[in-house]
Design goal:
The protein is an alpha+beta fold. Helices cover 42% and strands 13% of the residues. It has two domains: 9-22 and 53-170 and 259-284, Cytidine Deaminase, domain 2; 175-248, no CATH class. It contains nine helices and eight strands. Strands 3-2-7 form a three-stranded antiparallel sheet. It starts with 31 loop residues before the first helix and ends with a helix.
Length: 312
């Protein structure tokens, strides 16, 4: 399918006020599990069987002129070269999910083009922005001073769109505490093991790898209990098959909650911008439907194969 040219591409020339700089390098050496968790959230925000061109799951409701405005808005969030308004909507949802997975909150500057009245969104780092009564204050970190022409920026609140995780999945503070918990243990082993290997050049006889992996998995499952993450691991070394599949359904539920929340926030934004078009999803399992499937599995009314089929 041919890529659709964005008729409002000139809107990208409008200059955002917010500062843009690369994020700092993580000083956490044990961040592998955290990164896997974050990737699994946003890469699976739409089911894996959701194919390109299958636009009967995403509808854009509105007149063609309003859809064009929506196309420019969504393309500024996504790849910028979508082949349809529906495709740009999916990319926008994916990109918002990515930022929420990393920070628990996403901030976007609303940039209006005076020439053609189109609107685009420009994301900026929420770690260095503070909400004041009437403004957002953004201060560049010291490491970025040599790469920015300003050290701070002020944005009016009506120039910023803020998206947070849905309350069902916890607050921003709870989410970041969970990410820190995932980084607390290294999948490669505790720090003293590396020090021991460097010092004595041999593996300590009193360290049991299997015990460490068991405790690591228990810790990771406990930290991500609300989300139901299964760590890309279908082995049954430390859990039952029922518990593993229960967590799988819980994670799919969490992704569906997040997807519906992002779509709801996007539709609220379009209404705020007086764009008379909105996203409508269909033929995707809702959070309520996934909980119903999980409940029937717990009651024995569905086996694992039946639950997976009902979810598809």
């Amino acid at each position: 399918m041919a890529i659709r040219k964005n008729p409002n591409s000139k809107a990208a020339t409008a200059m955002p006020k917010a500062l843009h700089f690369a994020p700092s390098q993580s000083d956490e050496a044990n961040a592998l599990s955290r990164h896997m968790f974050q990737e699994d959230i946003y890469t699976g925000i739409f089911p894996y069987h959701f194919a390109r061109g299958d636009e009967n799951k995403i509808f854009i409701l509105g007149e063609e002129q309003e859809k064009q405005k929506l196309f420019a808005l969504f393309d500024s969030l996504g790849r910028g070269h979508s082949y349809s308004t529906e495709d740009s909507a999916r990319d926008a949802v994916d990109q918002i999910a990515l930022r929420l997975a990393h920070y628990g909150v996403a901030l976007f500057e609303i940039v209006k083009n005076s020439e053609n009245s189109s609107v685009v969104l420009s994301s900026f780092n929420p770690d260095f922005a503070w909400r004041l009564p009437a403004f957002y204050l953004q201060i560049a970190p010291r490491y970025a001073w040599t790469h920015t022409d300003r050290k701070y920026a002020l944005l009016k609140k009506n120039e910023v769109w803020r998206v947070t995780l849905p309350a069902t999945l916890g607050s921003v503070q709870q989410y970041r505490a969970m990410l820190s918990g995932l980084s607390a243990w290294s999948v490669m082993g505790p720090d003293f093991l590396e020090a021991e290997l460097e010092k004595k050049r041999r593996f300590p006889s009193d360290f049991v790898v299997a015990d460490y992996h068991r405790m690591l998995q228990v810790h990771q499952y406990r930290v991500t209990r609300r989300w139901g993450w299964i760590k890309r691991d279908w082995s049954l070394d430390y859990v039952t098959e029922f518990y593993q599949f229960h967590r799988f359904l819980t994670f799919r539920w969490a992704q569906a909650v997040l997807r519906d929340h992002i779509v709801s926030e996007l539709n609220a934004l379009t209404a705020r911008l007086n764009i008379k078009a909105k996203i409508h999803l269909q033929k995707l399992a809702s959070p309520e439907e996934i909980l119903d499937i999980r409940g029937k599995m717990k009651q024995g009314l569905l086996d694992f194969a039946g639950a997976a089929k009902a979810l598809a």
